[in-house]
Design a protein that fits this description.
The complex is a heterodimer of chains A (149) and B (153). Chain A has four helices and six strands, in the order αααββαββββ. With 149 residues, chain A is α+β, with helices and mostly antiparallel strands. Chain B is an alpha+beta fold. The chains are: A alpha+beta (149), B alpha+beta (153).
Chain lengths: 149, 153
């Protein structure tokens, strides 16, 4: 089986079953930051556990901004792959994040909106929150280069 | 300057294995030896963008603090990263961050990440808010800048 065949199978399996474990195993960094995902109807909810190792500022304490960025980039990539059922990991061209509030040491959630999907480029917006969706700790957007079919 | 001590108290930087190679008031150079937990794509053996984001945020944030006369908390306002080429597993990452402009409220910085000199993997701009020396815990300032601790470096 080729690389893209097996990846396509993994993505369709995740899409069909709503079980994310096997796909997440392909991303060691996701395990390192404590990322999990669940499919809730037509939405995918991403969660990051408040691991002690995710701390940036230990005095506040607060999550490291880079970890929040890594969490949101991973959410955008996985959301894009599973919602479009793509057979390869799309490349991130650029990533932009605005930090709105400090991230407390508690679970962080993220959801994505596929703003535009073209032949070559896809644009995904990501919202991350802790208390409630209307109080985001960060917003991000990602431009992806889609692989040729 | 207490940049090494600053990085040593940040758990995520320790978990990744980040090191300070050099630092002055306008530039810092950080390194990040490869570790398995940095991988974002196991099949293609590529480094995750989140690792690069954390390296850039830390290095740019550190150079922002280095540019100020006294330690101030400087949370990241925003960070924008261009991924120019893939970062491959098995090789260290380096990040050079520089001051663009210091104003009374904001510090503007830029950074570049590479694995081989002259071949940038990613570049970024990051802006930081200055919260003022008054909003910074005294212990933090003392821990980082007390001359009694200089010998540790």
């Amino acid at each position: 089986m080729t690389y893209s065949d097996s990846m396509a199978q993994l993505v369709s399996e995740t899409q069909r079953s709503g079980h994310w474990e096997t796909l997440l195993e392909q991303i060691p960094y996701a395990g390192f930051i404590g990322l999990t995902a669940q499919t809730l109807g037509d939405e995918i909810l991403f969660c990051m556990e408040p691991l002690e190792s995710n701390t940036g500022n230990p005095l506040l304490p607060a999550l490291h901004g880079g970890v929040i960025a890594g969490f949101m980039e991973t959410a955008a990539t996985l959301n894009l792959m599973v919602s479009l059922n793509v057979d390869q990991v799309p490349k991130v061209i650029d990533f932009t994040i605005d930090y709105l509030r400090s991230g407390k040491m508690k679970p962080t959630y993220a959801t994505c909106i596929l703003s535009r999907q073209g032949q070559r480029i896809a644009n995904v917006q990501v919202n991350a929150w802790q208390k409630d969706r209307e109080t985001p700790i960060a917003t991000a957007r990602v431009n992806f280069l889609m692989h040729d079919k | 300057m207490g940049v090494k001590r600053f990085i040593a108290v940040l758990p995520q930087c320790q978990a990744l294995g980040m090191r300070v190679e050099s630092a002055d008031h306008e530039h810092v150079l950080f390194s990040l030896p490869f570790a398995e937990c940095h991988i974002g794509n196991s099949r293609k053996q590529l480094i995750h963008g989140g690792v690069i984001a954390t390296l850039l945020d830390t290095a740019c944030g550190s150079v922002a603090v280095c540019a100020l006369p006294r330690f101030e908390m400087c949370p990241t306002l925003d960070l924008r990263i261009d991924h120019l080429r893939p970062a491959v597993a098995g090789k260290a990452l380096y990040c050079r961050a520089s001051i663009v402009q210091v104003t009374p409220r904001i510090v503007f910085t830029e950074g570049v990440v590479y694995q081989e000199k002259g071949r940038p993997v990613s570049r970024a701009v990051a802006n930081f808010m200055r919260l003022g020396a008054g909003k910074t815990p005294v212990e933090m300032d003392e821990a980082l800048f007390s001359p009694n601790n200089e010998g540790e470096e």
